[in-house]
């Protein structure tokens, strides 16, 4: 299933504050699209609008040509990680995943599969209270993968990952794109982003200010500083 993420003239105001203004972009299947900008630029608000967690003031956001809240099988269409803290500390990783896959009506075999995908098989029976931030980040990604979604939306997925975890994430994101998934990732790690992204979007003060293909010669740090100053 193809699941293009399309944002058209998306705007969100909170009272007198405009968090996102007239943002338009497309994240196509088979690519990793990086969403870059300083804190408070509007990245997370935009991602939350794409996922139906925040209602736009105006504009539209669709996944596979459909608003997320109207998708017939949302977990099979789009998986998301907006934070890696929403876990019951007394559960094991395996228990946590079984709760989510049962609620979504997914087969039991998906749990072992996503644990393997995220390198958590050996820690599957440990309580989440003993997990490091990096392990929680992997578990959040495993949860997003339960429905084998066509699109992945990840907000700062490198947070808490050690160098081995960052190396794993880079390969994982590239593999997802190779498999034809649509991957949209917000990040502050510019040097690492350059190693896995195909396209970069720059947002500042709620507006999309620049976008560019990413090649080995692209200087993301220079472009970031120019676009967000």
From TrEMBL:
Signal peptide: none annotated. Keywords: ATP-binding, Nucleotide-binding, Transport. GO terms for molecular function: ATP binding; ATP hydrolysis activity. Residues 5-225 form the ABC transporter domain. Gene3D superfamilies: P-loop containing nucleotide triphosphate hydrolases. InterPro entries: AAA+_ATPase, ABC_transporter-like_ATP-bd, ABC_transporter-like_CS, P-loop_NTPase. It comes from the Bacteria. Belongs to the ABC transporter superfamily. This is ABC transporter ATP-binding protein. It comes from Spongiactinospora rosea.
